[in-house]
Amino acid sequence: MKEKTIQLYNFEELNAEAKIKALDDHNEHNDYDFLSENLSEYLVQLLEENRIKGDAKLFYSLSNCQGDGVCFTGDFEFQGINFNVEHNNGHYYHNNSTNITAEKDENDDGDELRADVIEVLTQDAEENFKEVYKEICDAIEKTGYAQIEHEQSEECFKETCDANEYTFRASGEMENF
Q1: Do 18 and 95 share a domain, yes or no?
Q2: 47 φ, ψ to 5°?
Q3: Same domain (yes/no): 64, 102
Q4: Are residues 70 and 4 part of one domain?
Q5: 25 and 92 share a domain?
């Protein structure tokens, strides 16, 4: 039988080069499992703050690449008008990758003046909804990138290592990953 002894270090005990390797390895394999739930909760909060009723499904891609961003779909009520938001692009998730349509009032009683007023109100509400929709998507995207940046920071990684008692070889390779 052979016995082999290796030295293990906590994150703080590593030299600068080994710390960089450990952090890079962690960031490369991090799936950010928390992100979907956090961003979905934030979306619900923003919808409530903007007096938008409805159930939203959130889509996002936050990898600092072209076409990245946030969008959400569903049926919503805003300023007394119903809106349908559908994703229109299979590859990209940003605020311009959706179709937003206002549902027209089907109770047309033949009154042209009433129909014209309803059309103007619907158009105004649609413009307002699209503006608020973009603001919500932008806010969620900004928050998502901030959460990822924090998660990738050395400070956050150190806290994770301490809490989970991770140990490393001198090279920065995690022993109990």
Answers
A1: no
A2: -65, -45
A3: yes
A4: no
A5: no
For the stretch 50-102, pLDDT in tens is 999 999 999 898 887 777 899 999 999 999 899 999 988 777 777 777 888 88
* 15-29 confidence digits (pLDDT tens): 999 999 999 999 888
Query: What is the percentage of the chain residues whose pLDDT exceeds 70?
Result: 89
Neighbours of 86 (CB within 10 A): 13
DSSP letter at 12 equals G
CA distance 91 to 83: 23
* CA separation for the pair 34, 89 (Å, rounded): 25
**CB distance 43 to 132 below 8 Å:** no
Q: How many domains does the chain have?
A: 2
Residues 64 and 133 in one domain: yes
pTM, entire model: 0.79
Nearest-angstrom CA–CA distance, 11 and 15: 9
pLDDT band at 10 (very low <50, low <70, confident <90, very high): very high
C-alpha closest to that of 119 among 130, 132, 133, 108: 108
Domain that holds residue 160: 1-30+153-177
Give the Å distances, CA to CA, from 135 to 19, 20, 125, 128, 132: 38, 36, 15, 11, 5
